[in-house]
């Protein structure tokens, strides 16, 4: 191990995205003494409101949603022992095609160069060795996730600082396993099918470069998700209970897209080649 402490930066779209795909690595690396920086790009104002009120429904007050989600994000960071939380506070753009896509201040409506400039500033300040974000489809096509991908890649390009960059992904085999467990607990989980608008989710197992075992941090990851229990899709995961959730979500997987270390793949550590 080198003297200089290592730094991990995760760039996410909404308050709660840090939990499912990177809750394990944030908890694990913090426990190993790595400085962890979470950058959350939007305020989550298009999420479910207090009492489960859906965006667009009467009584959905984006300001109240933002307040609630800010508190939830703080609680999640506490569960994961995140060292630094940085929020860019762009407006949540909502799902693709919603009127909120074009709202003033919406993340999707913000020039990439502008938001990437702000992220580049954070990269210069924290000098992360490893940066994690999404693939070019934002994993599942959400405009804010796509935009998070774009600004991350632009900011990495501009600064040249991170030694390694990763995109979160899910092995195709995990979707089958997930479907089986969900059916066991009585929840229908149709396996996602690829369409023209929506390429297939995840990657074939042999295209995944990096498998990080975070099963020892299942409790923290579950607590992070539970902090965001106001959002319907999280309630879905919480129904699994901590043990089954950890069994299913204990391995976090990534595709490595930038590397200056020469570490061989497949690897089991985002910091392989750096310590
Ligand atoms: Zn999101």
Automatic annotation (TrEMBL):
Entry superkingdom: Bacteria
SUPFAM superfamilies listed in its UniProt record: LmbE-like
Pfam families: PIG-L
InterPro entries (UniProt xref): GlcNAc_PI_deacetylase-related (IPR003737), LmbE-like_dom_sf (IPR024078)
Keywords: Zinc
Protein name as it appears in the record: GlcNAc-PI de-N-acetylase
Organism taxonomic ancestry: Bacteria, Bacillati, Actinomycetota, Actinomycetes, Micromonosporales
């Amino acid at each position: 191990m080198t003297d200089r402490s290592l730094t991990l930066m995760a760039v996410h779209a909404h308050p709660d995205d840090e939990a499912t795909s990177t809750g394990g690595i944030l908890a694990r690396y913090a426990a190993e003494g790595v400085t962890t920086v979470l950058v959350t790009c939007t305020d989550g104002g298009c999420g479910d409101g207090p009492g489960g009120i859906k965006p667009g429904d009467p009584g959905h007050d984006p300001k109240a949603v933002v307040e609630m989600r800010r508190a939830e994000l703080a609680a999640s960071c506490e569960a994961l022992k995140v060292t630094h939380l940085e929020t860019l506070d762009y407006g949540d753009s909502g799902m693709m095609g919603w009127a909120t896509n074009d709202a003033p201040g919406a993340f999707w409506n913000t020039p990439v160069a502008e938001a990437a400039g702000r992220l580049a500033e954070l990269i210069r300040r924290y000098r992360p060795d490893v940066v994690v974000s999404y693939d070019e489809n934002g994993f599942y096509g959400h405009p804010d996730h796509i935009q998070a991908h774009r600004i991350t890649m632009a900011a990495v390009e501009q600064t040249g600082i991170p030694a390694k960059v990763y995109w979160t992904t899910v092995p195709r085999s995990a979707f089958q396993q997930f479907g089986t467990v969900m059916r066991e607990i009585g929840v229908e989980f149709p396996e996602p099918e690829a369409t023209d608008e929506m390429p297939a989710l995840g990657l074939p197992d042999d295209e995944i470069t990096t498998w990080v075992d975070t099963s020892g941090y299942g409790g923290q990851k579950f607590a992070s998700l539970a902090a965001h229990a106001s959002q319907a899709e999280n309630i879905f995961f919480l129904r699994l209970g901590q043990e089954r959730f950890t069994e299913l979500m204990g391995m976090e997987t990534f595709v490595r897209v930038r590397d200056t270390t020469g570490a061989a793949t497949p690897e089991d550590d985002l910091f392989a080649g750096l310590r």
